[in-house]
Amino acid sequence: GFSPPFTYQWTLGGTTPTISNVPSGVYNVTVTDANGCSIIKGHPLSQPAQINVFTQVTNVGCNGGVGGAVLLTTTGGTAPYTFHWSNGSTSANLQGLVAGTYTVTVTDANGCTRTATSIIQQPVAFTASIQVLSEQCDLAILTVNTSGGPAPVAFQWTGPNVFSSTLQNLTVTVSGTYTVVVTNSNGCTASSSYTIDLANEGNCGYISGRIVRDTSENCVADANEPGLNNWLVRAENASGVYYGVANTQGVYVIGVPTGTYDVVTVPPNALWEACVPAPSVSVTAPGDTIHDID
C-alpha cells in the first residue's frame, strides 16, 4: 500500500489535492507517497454548451404605437433560465412595446449569463392634410394628401349638416368645417380639418360633362361605357384653375367665372391615359352651363 504523506503534481502545475476554476479538458495528476511510490490518474472535465439567445422582433406598425414585440428562443447552458430585461421585465418574451432598444440578460442554472439586444423600429409619422383644389362661386373641391407610412386605404369625412363621405375627393356646396380621418394599411390613422366659406359671388357659370372608361378605345364617350367615380377634372386658363369631381356615374360639374377654359381629365395614377387633346369651352355669361364636355 501507499504511505502518507502524499504529494500531488497536476499537469497544469497545481500541487494541491484538488484544483478548481479550470476550463474543460483532461487533467492528469501524479500522486507520490512517503516512500516515493507514485500513481498517475486522469479525469476528463466537461462543460455545458454555450448559452445562445435568438430573438424574433416585431416592429411597431404605427409611429408612436405600442405593437412591438420580442420573442426569445434560448438554447445551451443548463436549464432553467431566468431573464432580466432592460425595461425591468423578467418574462422570456416582451409584447406591447414602443419603439426602442431592449437588452436581455439570460442566466442559466449554473449562473452563466448571455446578453442579447433587440431594436424595435417604427415607421415615420403618418399625416394627412386637406388641400383646396378650387374654391369658386358656390362650389369648393377638396382632396386629402397623405405622407409617411403605407398608402391610405380608407377615408372618412364629416362636415356641416351631418355630412359624411368615404371618398378621397369632395365637391363641397355648404360652408363650414370639414374633417377627414384617413386610415392606412397598417391601421394607422391621421386627421385634418379645413373651414370653407363659399362666397357665392353670382358671376359664375358651370362646365358639366362625364368621364368614362373608354372600353372601345376610340376616345369617344359612348353611352354604355362606365363612368369613373371620384376622378378629378380640371378647367384652366391664364387667370385660374378650377376643379370638379366625378360622381358614381362619372358626371362632374365645375364652377368657373366667365371665360374660355381647357378641360383636362386628371387620372389618379400613371396606369391611366387620358384622351387628348383637351376640349376648349367658353362660359360667356354668369349662370351659363356648358354641358356634355366628355
Task: Tell me what you see in this structure.
By secondary structure, the chain is mainly β. Helix content is 0%, strand content 51%. The chain has no helices and 23 strands. The protein has strands spanning 7-10, 25-32, 38-45, 52-58, 68-75, 82-85, 94-97, 100-107, 113-120, 127-136, 139-147, 152-159, 163-165, 170-172, 176-184, 189-196, 204-210, 232-237, 240-245, 251-257, 259-266, 280-283, 289-290. A four-stranded antiparallel beta sheet has the order 13-12-15-16, with no helix packed on it. It has a four-stranded antiparallel beta sheet with strand order 19-18-21-22, with no helix packed on it. Strands 1-2-3 form a three-stranded antiparallel beta sheet, with no helix packed on it.
The helix content, as a percent range, equals under 10%
Strand order of the biggest β-sheet: 13-12-15-16
What would the average pLDDT be, to the nearest integer? 89
The total beta strand count reads 23
Q: Secondary-structure blueprint of this entry?
A:
Layout: E1 7-10, E2 25-32, E3 38-45, E4 52-58, E5 68-75, E6 82-85, E7 94-97, E8 100-107, E9 113-120, E10 127-136, E11 139-147, E12 152-159, E13 163-165, E14 170-172, E15 176-184, E16 189-196, E17 204-210, E18 232-237, E19 240-245, E20 251-257, E21 259-266, E22 280-283, E23 289-290
Parallel strand pairs: 17-23
Antiparallel strand pairs: 1-2, 2-3, 4-5, 5-7, 6-8, 8-9, 10-11, 11-14, 12-13, 12-15, 15-16, 17-20, 18-19, 18-21, 21-22
